[in-house]
Protein backbone atom coordinates (compact mmCIF):
# COMPACT_ATOMS: atom_id res chain seq x y z
CA UNK A 1 0.00 0.00 0.00
CA UNK A 2 1.26 3.50 -0.79
CA UNK A 3 2.15 6.11 1.78
CA UNK A 4 -0.64 8.18 3.25
CA UNK A 5 -1.53 11.29 1.27
CA UNK A 6 -1.33 14.75 2.78
CA UNK A 7 -3.85 17.40 1.91
CA UNK A 8 -3.15 21.09 1.52
CA UNK A 9 -6.02 23.50 1.56
CA UNK A 10 -5.84 26.47 -0.78
CA UNK A 11 -6.02 29.80 1.00
CA UNK A 12 -9.20 30.89 -0.61
CA UNK A 13 -11.33 27.91 0.25
CA UNK A 14 -13.80 29.67 2.45
CA UNK A 15 -17.22 28.51 1.42
CA UNK A 16 -17.18 25.18 3.21
CA UNK A 17 -16.82 23.22 -0.02
CA UNK A 18 -13.81 21.43 1.30
CA UNK A 19 -11.38 21.79 4.12
CA UNK A 20 -7.94 20.82 5.22
CA UNK A 21 -6.22 17.55 5.84
CA UNK A 22 -5.62 15.56 8.96
CA UNK A 23 -2.91 13.01 8.39
CA UNK A 24 -4.20 10.59 5.81
CA UNK A 25 -7.82 11.67 6.09
CA UNK A 26 -9.73 14.42 4.35
CA UNK A 27 -11.71 16.50 6.77
CA UNK A 28 -15.00 17.82 5.46
CA UNK A 29 -17.25 20.19 7.38
CA UNK A 30 -20.90 19.89 6.55
CA UNK A 31 -23.55 22.43 7.45
CA UNK A 32 -25.37 19.92 9.67
CA UNK A 33 -23.03 20.47 12.63
CA UNK A 34 -21.02 17.43 11.61
CA UNK A 35 -17.47 16.94 10.41
CA UNK A 36 -16.61 13.94 8.25
CA UNK A 37 -13.15 12.38 8.25
CA UNK A 38 -12.65 10.25 5.13
CA UNK A 39 -9.59 8.07 4.59
CA UNK A 40 -7.48 5.35 6.13
CA UNK A 41 -8.72 4.71 9.65
CA UNK A 42 -5.22 4.26 10.97
CA UNK A 43 -5.71 0.75 12.32
CA UNK A 44 -4.01 -0.82 9.29
CA UNK A 45 -6.60 -3.60 9.14
CA UNK A 46 -9.09 -2.13 6.72
CA UNK A 47 -8.20 -1.97 3.06
CA UNK A 48 -11.07 0.35 2.20
CA UNK A 49 -11.61 4.08 2.71
CA UNK A 50 -13.13 4.59 6.16
CA UNK A 51 -15.42 7.29 7.52
CA UNK A 52 -15.67 8.89 10.98
CA UNK A 53 -18.12 11.56 12.00
CA UNK A 54 -17.54 14.29 14.57
CA UNK A 55 -20.77 15.46 16.16
CA UNK A 56 -19.85 19.06 16.94
CA UNK A 57 -22.60 19.41 19.52
CA UNK A 58 -21.11 16.65 21.69
CA UNK A 59 -17.50 16.77 20.39
CA UNK A 60 -17.65 13.00 20.00
CA UNK A 61 -16.36 10.94 17.09
CA UNK A 62 -18.73 8.22 15.87
CA UNK A 63 -18.08 5.35 13.46
CA UNK A 64 -21.21 5.18 11.28
CA UNK A 65 -22.88 2.12 9.81
CA UNK A 66 -21.71 2.06 6.20
CA UNK A 67 -23.92 0.90 3.33
CA UNK A 68 -22.80 0.15 -0.22
CA UNK A 69 -19.52 -1.14 -1.60
CA UNK A 70 -16.67 0.76 0.04
CA UNK A 71 -13.91 2.20 -2.19
CA UNK A 72 -10.57 0.46 -1.78
CA UNK A 73 -7.83 2.64 -0.27
CA UNK A 74 -5.67 4.34 -2.88
CA UNK A 75 -2.48 6.33 -2.72
CA UNK A 76 -4.43 9.54 -2.69
CA UNK A 77 -7.87 10.99 -2.94
CA UNK A 78 -9.54 14.37 -2.86
CA UNK A 79 -13.00 15.29 -1.66
CA UNK A 80 -15.49 18.07 -2.12
CA UNK A 81 -18.99 18.78 -0.79
CA UNK A 82 -21.57 18.54 -3.58
CA UNK A 83 -24.61 19.59 -1.61
CA UNK A 84 -25.98 19.05 1.90
CA UNK A 85 -26.52 15.37 1.08
CA UNK A 86 -23.33 14.18 -0.61
CA UNK A 87 -19.57 14.43 -0.73
CA UNK A 88 -17.69 13.59 -3.94
CA UNK A 89 -14.46 11.62 -3.45
CA UNK A 90 -11.99 11.40 -6.35
CA UNK A 91 -9.42 8.62 -6.20
CA UNK A 92 -6.13 9.23 -7.98
CA UNK A 93 -4.42 6.83 -10.33
CA UNK A 94 -7.55 4.72 -10.53
CA UNK A 95 -9.32 3.01 -13.36
CA UNK A 96 -12.45 4.58 -14.83
CA UNK A 97 -14.77 2.37 -12.81
CA UNK A 98 -13.04 3.22 -9.52
CA UNK A 99 -12.27 6.93 -9.73
CA UNK A 100 -15.40 8.83 -8.66
CA UNK A 101 -17.27 7.94 -5.48
CA UNK A 102 -20.20 9.59 -3.74
CA UNK A 103 -20.37 9.48 0.04
CA UNK A 104 -24.04 9.97 0.82
CA UNK A 105 -24.49 11.54 4.24
CA UNK A 106 -28.09 12.70 4.19
CA UNK A 107 -29.86 11.36 1.08
CA UNK A 108 -33.34 9.81 1.35
CA UNK A 109 -31.74 6.35 1.48
CA UNK A 110 -29.39 7.38 4.32
CA UNK A 111 -32.19 9.07 6.27
CA UNK A 112 -34.34 5.96 5.92
CA UNK A 113 -31.55 3.66 7.17
CA UNK A 114 -30.66 6.07 9.99
CA UNK A 115 -34.28 6.04 11.19
CA UNK A 116 -34.45 2.23 10.89
CA UNK A 117 -31.21 1.54 12.76
CA UNK A 118 -31.11 4.50 15.14
CA UNK A 119 -27.39 5.01 14.41
CA UNK A 120 -25.30 7.31 12.26
CA UNK A 121 -25.35 6.04 8.67
CA UNK A 122 -23.44 6.85 5.50
CA UNK A 123 -23.65 5.12 2.12
CA UNK A 124 -21.13 4.83 -0.69
CA UNK A 125 -22.25 4.94 -4.29
CA UNK A 126 -19.76 4.43 -7.08
CA UNK A 127 -19.90 6.94 -9.96
CA UNK A 128 -20.22 5.49 -13.45
CA UNK A 129 -18.82 7.63 -16.27
CA UNK A 130 -20.68 7.75 -19.55
CA UNK A 131 -24.21 7.57 -20.74
CA UNK A 132 -25.15 4.31 -19.09
CA UNK A 133 -28.30 3.16 -20.78
CA UNK A 134 -31.13 2.25 -18.49
CA UNK A 135 -31.57 -1.44 -17.65
CA UNK A 136 -33.99 -3.62 -19.61
CA UNK A 137 -36.43 -5.81 -17.71
CA UNK A 138 -37.75 -8.82 -19.64
CA UNK A 139 -40.77 -10.40 -18.02
CA UNK A 140 -43.44 -12.90 -18.94
CA UNK A 141 -44.82 -16.29 -17.97
CA UNK A 142 -42.58 -19.29 -17.52
CA UNK A 143 -41.78 -20.93 -20.86
CA UNK A 144 -42.67 -17.94 -23.06
CA UNK A 145 -39.08 -17.61 -24.30
CA UNK A 146 -37.54 -14.83 -22.18
CA UNK A 147 -34.29 -16.70 -21.63
CA UNK A 148 -34.09 -17.63 -25.33
CA UNK A 149 -34.51 -14.00 -26.42
CA UNK A 150 -31.99 -12.75 -23.85
CA UNK A 151 -29.45 -15.38 -24.92
CA UNK A 152 -29.78 -14.19 -28.54
CA UNK A 153 -29.27 -10.56 -27.50
CA UNK A 154 -26.21 -11.41 -25.42
CA UNK A 155 -24.75 -13.48 -28.22
CA UNK A 156 -25.20 -10.79 -30.85
CA UNK A 157 -24.17 -7.86 -28.64
CA UNK A 158 -21.74 -9.21 -26.02
CA UNK A 159 -20.09 -5.79 -25.54
CA UNK A 160 -23.35 -3.98 -25.13
CA UNK A 161 -25.39 -6.09 -22.75
CA UNK A 162 -24.69 -7.83 -19.47
CA UNK A 163 -27.06 -10.22 -17.73
CA UNK A 164 -28.03 -9.57 -14.11
CA UNK A 165 -27.51 -12.97 -12.48
CA UNK A 166 -30.38 -13.48 -10.03
CA UNK A 167 -30.37 -15.37 -6.76
CA UNK A 168 -32.78 -18.25 -6.33
CA UNK A 169 -33.60 -20.90 -3.76
CA UNK A 170 -34.71 -23.39 -6.42
CA UNK A 171 -32.47 -26.35 -7.22
CA UNK A 172 -30.20 -26.03 -10.28
CA UNK A 173 -31.24 -27.79 -13.49
CA UNK A 174 -28.78 -30.23 -15.06
CA UNK A 175 -27.34 -27.69 -17.49
CA UNK A 176 -27.25 -24.74 -15.06
CA UNK A 177 -24.05 -23.28 -13.63
CA UNK A 178 -23.92 -21.50 -10.30
CA UNK A 179 -22.95 -17.85 -10.82
CA UNK A 180 -23.81 -17.91 -14.52
CA UNK A 181 -27.49 -18.84 -14.78
CA UNK A 182 -28.26 -18.07 -11.15
CA UNK A 183 -26.64 -17.70 -7.77
CA UNK A 184 -28.16 -20.77 -6.15
CA UNK A 185 -28.65 -20.18 -2.47
CA UNK A 186 -30.40 -21.35 0.70
CA UNK A 187 -33.66 -19.76 1.78
CA UNK A 188 -32.37 -18.63 5.19
CA UNK A 189 -29.31 -17.01 3.58
CA UNK A 190 -31.43 -15.20 1.04
CA UNK A 191 -33.92 -14.06 3.67
CA UNK A 192 -31.07 -12.58 5.73
CA UNK A 193 -29.68 -10.81 2.63
CA UNK A 194 -33.14 -9.43 1.88
CA UNK A 195 -33.31 -8.08 5.44
CA UNK A 196 -29.89 -6.52 4.98
CA UNK A 197 -31.21 -4.61 1.95
CA UNK A 198 -28.97 -6.45 -0.51
CA UNK A 199 -31.76 -6.93 -3.05
CA UNK A 200 -33.25 -4.43 -5.45
CA UNK A 201 -36.28 -6.66 -5.80
CA UNK A 202 -37.32 -10.18 -4.85
CA UNK A 203 -40.42 -12.37 -5.12
CA UNK A 204 -41.76 -15.81 -4.28
CA UNK A 205 -42.23 -17.42 -7.70
CA UNK A 206 -43.65 -20.93 -8.26
CA UNK A 207 -42.79 -21.81 -4.64
CA UNK A 208 -39.20 -20.52 -4.56
CA UNK A 209 -37.54 -17.19 -3.77
CA UNK A 210 -35.95 -15.24 -6.62
CA UNK A 211 -34.27 -11.86 -6.41
CA UNK A 212 -32.02 -9.33 -8.11
CA UNK A 213 -29.19 -8.22 -5.85
CA UNK A 214 -27.84 -4.68 -5.96
CA UNK A 215 -24.43 -6.21 -6.64
CA UNK A 216 -25.59 -8.20 -9.69
CA UNK A 217 -26.76 -5.02 -11.38
CA UNK A 218 -23.63 -3.12 -10.29
CA UNK A 219 -21.31 -5.75 -11.78
CA UNK A 220 -22.90 -5.19 -15.19
CA UNK A 221 -22.99 -1.40 -14.89
CA UNK A 222 -19.34 -1.32 -13.85
CA UNK A 223 -18.45 -3.02 -17.14
CA UNK A 224 -20.12 -0.12 -18.93
CA UNK A 225 -22.81 -2.47 -20.22
CA UNK A 226 -26.57 -2.25 -20.32
CA UNK A 227 -28.10 -4.52 -17.74
CA UNK A 228 -30.76 -7.10 -18.70
CA UNK A 229 -33.02 -8.56 -16.01
CA UNK A 230 -35.11 -11.70 -16.50
CA UNK A 231 -37.71 -11.42 -13.74
CA UNK A 232 -41.34 -12.29 -13.09
CA UNK A 233 -44.24 -9.84 -13.11
CA UNK A 234 -44.10 -9.23 -9.34
CA UNK A 235 -40.42 -8.34 -9.72
CA UNK A 236 -41.22 -6.02 -12.62
CA UNK A 237 -43.77 -4.28 -10.41
CA UNK A 238 -41.16 -3.82 -7.67
CA UNK A 239 -38.67 -2.40 -10.17
CA UNK A 240 -41.32 0.01 -11.45
CA UNK A 241 -41.90 1.19 -7.87
CA UNK A 242 -38.16 1.46 -7.08
CA UNK A 243 -35.59 4.12 -7.85
CA UNK A 244 -34.13 1.92 -10.62
CA UNK A 245 -35.07 3.54 -13.89
CA UNK A 246 -35.67 0.74 -16.39
CA UNK A 247 -37.49 -0.15 -19.58
CA UNK A 248 -40.04 -2.90 -18.90
CA UNK A 249 -40.88 -5.39 -21.67
CA UNK A 250 -43.56 -8.05 -21.31
CA UNK A 251 -43.30 -11.14 -23.52
CA UNK A 252 -46.56 -12.97 -24.11
CA UNK A 253 -47.19 -16.32 -25.81
CA UNK A 254 -49.27 -16.60 -29.00
CA UNK A 255 -51.65 -18.86 -27.06
CA UNK A 256 -51.90 -20.70 -23.78
CA UNK A 257 -51.62 -24.02 -25.65
CA UNK A 258 -48.32 -22.93 -27.21
CA UNK A 259 -47.01 -21.94 -23.79
CA UNK A 260 -47.86 -25.34 -22.37
CA UNK A 261 -46.26 -27.04 -25.37
CA UNK A 262 -43.01 -25.08 -24.89
CA UNK A 263 -42.86 -25.76 -21.17
CA UNK A 264 -43.33 -29.49 -21.75
CA UNK A 265 -40.89 -29.58 -24.67
CA UNK A 266 -38.23 -27.91 -22.52
CA UNK A 267 -38.39 -30.90 -20.23
CA UNK A 268 -36.93 -29.19 -17.18
CA UNK A 269 -39.93 -29.38 -14.82
CA UNK A 270 -41.93 -32.18 -13.27
CA UNK A 271 -45.61 -32.50 -14.19
CA UNK A 272 -46.55 -30.94 -10.85
CA UNK A 273 -44.23 -27.98 -11.45
CA UNK A 274 -45.54 -27.51 -14.98
CA UNK A 275 -49.10 -27.36 -13.64
CA UNK A 276 -48.09 -24.80 -11.04
CA UNK A 277 -46.31 -22.64 -13.65
CA UNK A 278 -49.30 -22.81 -16.00
CA UNK A 279 -51.69 -21.80 -13.23
CA UNK A 280 -49.48 -18.82 -12.41
CA UNK A 281 -49.14 -17.94 -16.11
CA UNK A 282 -52.84 -17.05 -16.37
CA UNK A 283 -52.54 -14.32 -13.72
CA UNK A 284 -49.20 -13.13 -15.11
CA UNK A 285 -50.59 -12.72 -18.63
CA UNK A 286 -53.57 -10.79 -17.23
CA UNK A 287 -51.30 -8.45 -15.28
CA UNK A 288 -48.69 -8.15 -18.01
CA UNK A 289 -51.16 -7.18 -20.69
CA UNK A 290 -53.19 -4.74 -18.62
CA UNK A 291 -52.12 -1.12 -19.16
CA UNK A 292 -49.79 0.80 -16.85
CA UNK A 293 -47.06 -1.58 -15.74
CA UNK A 294 -45.07 -2.44 -18.86
CA UNK A 295 -43.64 -0.07 -21.44
CA UNK A 296 -43.85 -2.64 -24.25
CA UNK A 297 -45.55 -5.94 -24.94
CA UNK A 298 -44.22 -8.36 -27.57
CA UNK A 299 -45.79 -11.60 -28.76
CA UNK A 300 -43.27 -14.41 -29.06
CA UNK A 301 -44.85 -16.43 -31.84
CA UNK A 302 -42.13 -16.62 -34.47
CA UNK A 303 -38.87 -16.37 -32.50
CA UNK A 304 -36.89 -14.45 -35.14
CA UNK A 305 -39.64 -11.92 -35.63
CA UNK A 306 -40.02 -11.37 -31.90
CA UNK A 307 -36.24 -10.93 -31.58
CA UNK A 308 -36.20 -8.33 -34.37
CA UNK A 309 -39.02 -6.44 -32.64
CA UNK A 310 -37.13 -6.53 -29.35
CA UNK A 311 -34.02 -5.13 -31.01
CA UNK A 312 -36.08 -2.44 -32.70
CA UNK A 313 -37.56 -1.19 -29.45
CA UNK A 314 -34.11 -1.17 -27.86
CA UNK A 315 -32.84 1.01 -30.70
CA UNK A 316 -30.51 -1.73 -31.92
CA UNK A 317 -31.81 -2.43 -35.30
CA UNK A 318 -33.32 -0.81 -38.34
CA UNK A 319 -35.26 -4.01 -38.85
CA UNK A 320 -32.53 -5.67 -40.90
CA UNK A 321 -30.57 -6.98 -37.95
CA UNK A 322 -27.84 -4.30 -38.22
CA UNK A 323 -26.68 -2.81 -34.92
CA UNK A 324 -27.08 0.97 -34.71
CA UNK A 325 -26.38 1.90 -31.14
CA UNK A 326 -23.05 0.61 -29.83
CA UNK A 327 -21.29 2.60 -27.12
CA UNK A 328 -17.83 2.35 -25.61
CA UNK A 329 -17.09 3.18 -21.96
CA UNK A 330 -14.82 6.19 -21.40
CA UNK A 331 -11.43 6.01 -19.73
CA UNK A 332 -10.53 8.25 -16.80
CA UNK A 333 -7.21 8.92 -15.14
CA UNK A 334 -6.77 11.56 -12.46
CA UNK A 335 -3.12 11.91 -11.37
CA UNK A 336 -2.07 12.09 -7.75
CA UNK A 337 -1.47 15.81 -7.90
CA UNK A 338 -4.59 17.73 -8.69
CA UNK A 339 -6.85 20.45 -7.37
CA UNK A 340 -10.61 20.37 -7.54
CA UNK A 341 -13.25 23.04 -7.41
CA UNK A 342 -16.95 23.24 -8.09
CA UNK A 343 -19.04 25.48 -10.30
CA UNK A 344 -22.72 24.59 -10.18
CA UNK A 345 -22.95 20.94 -11.22
CA UNK A 346 -19.46 20.86 -12.71
CA UNK A 347 -16.29 19.79 -10.92
CA UNK A 348 -13.09 21.26 -12.33
CA UNK A 349 -10.10 18.98 -11.92
CA UNK A 350 -6.85 20.80 -12.42
CA UNK A 351 -4.00 18.32 -12.83
CA UNK A 352 -0.85 20.19 -11.88
CA UNK A 353 2.47 19.25 -13.39
CA UNK A 354 5.17 21.13 -11.43
CA UNK A 355 8.03 19.52 -13.31
CA UNK A 356 6.81 21.04 -16.58
CA UNK A 357 7.80 24.62 -17.53
CA UNK A 358 4.60 25.32 -19.39
CA UNK A 359 1.26 24.24 -18.04
CA UNK A 360 0.03 21.20 -19.88
CA UNK A 361 -3.39 20.74 -21.35
CA UNK A 362 -4.59 19.31 -18.12
CA UNK A 363 -7.86 20.80 -16.96
CA UNK A 364 -10.72 18.32 -16.85
CA UNK A 365 -14.40 18.72 -16.15
CA UNK A 366 -16.57 16.21 -14.36
CA UNK A 367 -20.11 17.14 -15.31
CA UNK A 368 -22.66 15.95 -12.77
CA UNK A 369 -25.69 17.64 -14.31
CA UNK A 370 -27.16 14.39 -15.65
CA UNK A 371 -26.48 12.03 -12.78
CA UNK A 372 -29.07 9.43 -11.81
CA UNK A 373 -29.39 6.79 -9.14
CA UNK A 374 -27.28 6.62 -6.02
CA UNK A 375 -26.94 4.33 -3.00
CA UNK A 376 -27.68 1.46 -2.58
CA UNK A 377 -26.73 1.15 -6.28
CA UNK A 378 -24.55 3.26 -8.53
CA UNK A 379 -24.59 6.92 -9.46
CA UNK A 380 -24.76 6.90 -13.24
CA UNK A 381 -24.52 9.45 -16.05
CA UNK A 382 -21.25 11.20 -15.08
CA UNK A 383 -19.56 13.04 -17.94
CA UNK A 384 -15.81 13.50 -17.95
CA UNK A 385 -13.96 15.55 -20.58
CA UNK A 386 -10.82 17.63 -21.16
CA UNK A 387 -11.41 21.36 -20.83
CA UNK A 388 -8.13 22.96 -21.92
CA UNK A 389 -4.91 24.30 -20.39
CA UNK A 390 -4.38 24.35 -16.65
CA UNK A 391 -5.57 27.42 -14.78
CA UNK A 392 -3.87 28.73 -11.68
CA UNK A 393 -5.38 30.08 -8.50
CA UNK A 394 -8.57 28.06 -8.79
CA UNK A 395 -10.73 27.62 -5.78
CA UNK A 396 -9.65 24.16 -4.84
CA UNK A 397 -7.06 22.20 -2.97
CA UNK A 398 -3.98 20.31 -3.78
CA UNK A 399 -3.31 16.74 -2.98
CA UNK A 400 0.24 15.56 -2.57
CA UNK A 401 1.64 12.12 -2.01
N1 LIG B 1 -40.86 -18.47 -30.49
C1 LIG B 1 -40.67 -19.72 -30.04
N2 LIG B 1 -41.24 -20.76 -30.69
C2 LIG B 1 -41.06 -22.02 -30.25
N3 LIG B 1 -40.34 -22.35 -29.16
C3 LIG B 1 -39.77 -21.37 -28.48
C4 LIG B 1 -39.90 -19.99 -28.87
N4 LIG B 1 -39.22 -19.22 -27.99
C5 LIG B 1 -38.69 -20.07 -27.09
N5 LIG B 1 -39.01 -21.34 -27.38
C6 LIG B 1 -38.66 -22.56 -26.61
O1 LIG B 1 -39.52 -22.58 -25.47
C7 LIG B 1 -38.87 -23.12 -24.33
C8 LIG B 1 -38.95 -22.13 -23.19
O2 LIG B 1 -38.15 -21.01 -23.49
P1 LIG B 1 -37.31 -20.27 -22.37
O3 LIG B 1 -36.62 -21.25 -21.53
O4 LIG B 1 -36.50 -19.24 -23.06
O5 LIG B 1 -38.51 -19.61 -21.56
P2 LIG B 1 -38.48 -18.62 -20.30
O6 LIG B 1 -39.52 -17.63 -20.53
O7 LIG B 1 -37.12 -18.13 -20.09
O8 LIG B 1 -38.91 -19.61 -19.16
P3 LIG B 1 -38.66 -19.49 -17.54
O9 LIG B 1 -39.36 -18.28 -17.08
O10 LIG B 1 -39.26 -20.75 -17.02
O11 LIG B 1 -37.20 -19.43 -17.32
C9 LIG B 1 -37.45 -23.41 -24.77
O12 LIG B 1 -37.33 -24.80 -25.03
C10 LIG B 1 -37.26 -22.58 -26.03
O13 LIG B 1 -36.34 -23.19 -26.93
N1 LIG C 1 -38.78 -11.39 -9.30
C1 LIG C 1 -37.82 -12.15 -9.84
N2 LIG C 1 -38.12 -13.15 -10.68
C2 LIG C 1 -37.13 -13.84 -11.24
C3 LIG C 1 -35.78 -13.57 -10.94
N3 LIG C 1 -35.02 -14.45 -11.64
C4 LIG C 1 -35.85 -15.21 -12.34
N4 LIG C 1 -37.12 -14.85 -12.10
C5 LIG C 1 -38.34 -15.43 -12.68
O1 LIG C 1 -38.64 -16.65 -12.08
C6 LIG C 1 -39.39 -17.43 -12.99
C7 LIG C 1 -38.92 -18.83 -12.99
O2 LIG C 1 -37.62 -18.94 -13.45
P1 LIG C 1 -36.95 -20.38 -13.69
O3 LIG C 1 -35.52 -20.10 -14.01
O4 LIG C 1 -37.13 -21.16 -12.42
O5 LIG C 1 -37.69 -21.00 -14.83
C8 LIG C 1 -39.26 -16.74 -14.36
O6 LIG C 1 -40.48 -16.09 -14.64
C9 LIG C 1 -38.19 -15.73 -14.16
O7 LIG C 1 -38.39 -14.58 -14.94
C10 LIG C 1 -35.49 -12.50 -10.05
O8 LIG C 1 -34.33 -12.18 -9.73
N5 LIG C 1 -36.52 -11.84 -9.53
UniProtKB/TrEMBL annotation:
Residues 133-315 form the Guanylate kinase-like domain. The keyword ATP-binding applies. InterPro entries: GK/Ca_channel_bsu, Guanylate_kin-like_dom, Guanylate_kinase, Guanylate_kinase_CS, P-loop_NTPase. Pfam families: Guanylate_kin (PF00625). PROSITE patterns: GUANYLATE_KINASE_1, GUANYLATE_KINASE_2. The keyword Nucleotide-binding applies. It catalyses: GMP + ATP = GDP + ADP. This is Guanylate kinase 1. One of its GO terms (cellular component) is cytosol. Gene3D superfamilies: Guanylate Kinase phosphate binding domain, P-loop containing nucleotide triphosphate hydrolases. Belongs to the guanylate kinase family. Its EC number is 2.7.4.8. It comes from Salvia splendens (Scarlet sage). CDD domains: GMPK (cd00071). Keywords: ATP-binding, Kinase, Nucleotide-binding, Transferase. It comes from the Eukaryota. It is an enzyme of class 2 (transferase). GO terms for molecular function: ATP binding; GMP kinase activity.
Amino acid sequence: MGEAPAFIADDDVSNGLLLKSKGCETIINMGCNKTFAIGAMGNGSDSSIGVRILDKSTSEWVIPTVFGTKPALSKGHSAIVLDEDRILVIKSNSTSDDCFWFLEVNTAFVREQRARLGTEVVAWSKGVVGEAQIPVVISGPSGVGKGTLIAKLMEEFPMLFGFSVSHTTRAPRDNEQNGFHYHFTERHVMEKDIQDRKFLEFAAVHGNLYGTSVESVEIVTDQGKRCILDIDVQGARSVRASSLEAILVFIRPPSFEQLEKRLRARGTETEEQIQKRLRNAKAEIDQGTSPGLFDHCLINDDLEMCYENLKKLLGLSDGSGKATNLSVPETVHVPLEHTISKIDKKILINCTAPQQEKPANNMFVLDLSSIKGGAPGRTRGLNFYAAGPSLTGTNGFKMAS
